[in-house]
Structure formats: C-alpha cells, structure tokens
Amino acid sequence: MSLEFGLYAPIPMAAVGSPEIAQAVTESLHPLPDGRRDAQYDLGIDVLLTADKVGFDLTLFAERHLGHDIHGWVNAAAIASRYEHMRALVAVHPGLWDPVMIAKMSASLDRIVKGRMAVNIVNGWFDQEFEMFGGTVLQGEDRYQRTIEFIDILRGLWENETYTKHGKFYNVEKGQLLLKPRTKEGPEIYSVSTSDRGRDFIADHCDWWFVEFPKEAENADEILRSLEISIADMNNRTQRTGRKVRYALNPFVAIGKTSQEAFDDTIAQIFKFDSDPDTRKIERRMIPATRAGCMGTPEDVRKQLKRFNDIGIELVLMKLLPNVENVRRLGEEVIQPLRR
Q1: pLDDT at 124
Q2: Which residues of the chain carry a pLDDT beneath 50?
Q3: How many Cα neighbours within 13 Å face the side chain of 293?
Q4: What's the rounded Cα separation, in Å, for the pair 329 and 83?
C-alpha cells in the first residue's frame, strides 16, 4: 500500500515555531508598507513550492475566519495554482457557506489545479465564529444532518446536469453548475470525527478519515494499537454499505540525532517564535501528536511511518516546523527514500 505525504499551509492557526507567522500576527491589525505582502503568504509560497518539488502530495489549507489567517480559499487559489504535483485540500464549515457556492468554488479551483482539489469538511465547533460570520450554530444530530445535506448538494451539482434537493436545512430546485470539476468523479471529501455518530457519518459520506490520536496513549506502540482498533471499526461500518474509506493521520514529524533532541529542538523553536507561547495551546497542537514516534533520526521516522502504513494509513499529514530547510530535509531524507 502506497503512502502519501501532506503538510499544512503555514498560517497562524496551523503553524508553530515560525518567525514569519509571528510577524504576520503582529502586523495583522495594521496596514503593510508599500510593496510588502503578508508574511504568512510569502512563507506559504516558499515552503509549499519547496514541498511540491521534494515529494509532498497534499496541502491542507485550513479555514479560520475569526483569526489572523489569510482565508483558506484565497490562499489555496493563490498558491496551489503554481503546483506541479501536490493536491489542494481546502477546509469548509457547513453552516458558514452555502453548498451551491462551495460547489462552484470547488469546481473552479479543481480546474485551475488540474484536478487536484479536495474538500475538508469541518463540522464546526467555534460558536463565536459562526455567529460573527453569519452562520447558524447547531448541535447534535441537526449538525450532522446539515453536513450530510451539504455534501449531497456538492456531489449532486458536480455529477448532474441539474440537481434538486429539498432538505431540512437546504433547498435546491433544479440547481446547476455551468462549470464542472476537471475530473468526472469530482473532488474527494475528507473529514475527522471521533464519536460513534461521527464515525457513521464518515463511513456513509466521506472518502477519507483523519483518524485522531487516542489522548490517553502514552507512547507510539499504544497509539498504533488504538489506531488499528479504530481502522477495524471503520472497515466494519463501511462493509455494511459497500463503501470504501481511506485513512489519514497527522503526527508531528521532526528530524534530529535522537528522538529527544528532535523533540527538544522543536519545543525550543516553538517557544522562541510563537507569538502566544501558551503551554496549553502548545500541548493541544503537539500532544499526543509528538508521541506518534515520528521524531528522531530519518531512519527512525521512516520506520515508524512504515508501521502506520502497514496498518492501513495511506496519508500522513505532517505537523512540522514550517521552514524551507526543514521541508526540504523531510522530503530528501524521509519521503524520497520511502519511495525507492
């Protein structure tokens, strides 16, 4: 089974340990000098075009409306149009966007990036953001039902000349797109969910599942066993409907002479440049992703990634320090050797 590799577009909500991100946050509420672009965009160009050259397969453009971040769809259109190989996975929150509009935006981007566009469905949890940007806050089953209708409309418009759906949350009467995605199949759907109801949603409606790390796991072996159980559970759910879901994981990946050195150097870099070095925030972003066993020598990292691949993981979305040197080294010393 082949293994693919991704990384996050470097923006404040998704990147740590970067002087450029710290600069972007500091400057976000002020006009920029003539001739200057936002520092996070320039960083994204440098890091992501390097990643495209050294073997990465995918970029996740996260979406954070209430934040210092350049908007995910704008960022994806500006940067991914320059890719030769990577896919652009763009996040969207049902309830903040109209699905017909996202169907058109997705088709547009898919044609620009030569059919390498995908949609990451984020079911939503940030009530303040929803309320400020005109969304509707839902809980429980209503939230899942809205998301299911949202996905149905995306696929219905991508795949049909006209599409009608009268749902609880959306009504589309003979909707149509006069611009279809580049590929007949249309963009794939990615998502993450941990609850029993959420897993049913993934099994019935998504193409990829970001399997979350067990919070209680203390080491890489415990994480591996828990992931095996989760994947087996999802396989049982998809077998009932005849669907296939593929599996992705997002460990923190760092290279050093030892695992401890890689960890220590990463933490030092984060606290040196993070604009808000809150220990709890760092823990949320890093722990338990740092316990996945992907910090150490290149050989150690490759061995652990192979273990994940052996249990069914097909995409590793790396959390990493977003700088050109680090991305190039991961490509040359981790990704390329695994493909020989």
Answers
A1: 73
A2: none
A3: 18
A4: 19
Contact (Cβ atoms closer than 8 angstroms) between residue 152 and residue 159? no
CB atoms within 10 A of CB 273: 18
pLDDT digits (tens, 9 = 90+) for 152-171: 999 999 999 999 999 999 99
In the chain, the amino acid numbered 65 is H
Tokens at 169, concatenated: 């949350």
Q: Is 87 helix (H, G, I), strand (E, B) or coil?
A: strand
Cα separation, 273 vs 26, whole angstroms: 12
> Can you state the angle between helices 196-205 and 220-241, rounded to 10 degrees?
60
State the DSSP code for 31. P
Q: Which domains does the chain have, with CATH numbers?
A: 4-338 (3.20.20.30)
Asked if residues 191 and 210 have their Cβ atoms less than 8 Å apart, the reply is yes
Alpha carbon distance 331, 318 (integer Å): 11
Q: Could you tell me where the DSSP H helices lie in 33-175? A: 39-54, 72-80, 99-112, 127-132, 140-159
Of 8, 57, 61, 1, nearest in space to 244 by CA: 1
Task: Report strand pairing: 87-92 vs 188-191.
Answer: unpaired
CB 248 within 8 A of CB 317: yes
Give 212-245 pLDDT, tens digit per residue: 888 788 889 999 999 999 999 999 999 998 999 9
